[in-house]
Amino acid sequence: MRFSSDPSETKTKFIYHISKSGYRKEWGHVYEKPGFFAKLKAFFLRLVPKVGPFSGLAFHPPTPPVEQLYMHSFNETLDRYRVLLLAQQEGRLQLPNENFDTGGVTEAASYRLADDTYAKLLKRTSGKPISEPLRQEILSYYADLEKPFATKRNSKAWHELIKELDVLKSKPVAGSQPGDLSFLRP
Fold first, then answer.
1. What does residue 60 show for φ and ψ, rounded to 5 degrees?
2. How far is 115 from 152, CA to CA, in rounded Å?
3. For the residues 28-35, what does the mean pLDDT come to?
4. How many other C-beta atoms can be found within 10 angstroms of the C-beta atom of residue 121?
5. Prediction pTM value
6. 98 beta partners
7. Three-state SS at 172
C-alpha cells in the first residue's frame, strides 16, 4: 500500500472503516474515554474565539507543499519498513545500537538515561538465562568501569550493579534464542 501525493484522490481511499462493535472488540479495553472535566474544557475551548492569544487554537490545514512532504516521508518510511521486514524474514537483520534521544550510537557513560536503562536491564536479567549476544552487549557496555556512569552517583546501586556484573560474568550462557525476551517479564 502506497499513499499517493495526488491531491485529486478521494478521502475514502484513506479511511479505514470498522464498525463500533468491531472497534470495541479489538481496542475497547485500551481506549480511555474522556472524563467530565476533559469534556468541560473542550466545551469552553470551542467557545473561545480563535483570535489574539488564542489564535494558536485554530485549525490551519497544511499547505500543498507540506502535504507533499508528508506523503513523500510516509512512502519513504513504508519502503524502509518493508526492507527491514524482508531482512528480518531472511535472518539478516542487523540493527545498530542507536540512542534515539541523542541520535548517536549508544556509548557507555555518555547519557544518563542509557546508563539507567542498562542498569535496569542488568538487574532484570540477573540470575536468569539470557542469550549470548545480550550477555556480550551488557558486558561490553560495562567493559570500562572507570567511566563516569550515572549509576555511580548512588553508592548502594553501584555496588549492587557490580555484584550483578560479577554474576553475569560467571554465569554460563543459556540456550535461548536471540529474539527471546521472556526474561523481561516480571
1. -120, 110
2. 10
3. 82
4. 17
5. 0.56
6. 105
7. coil
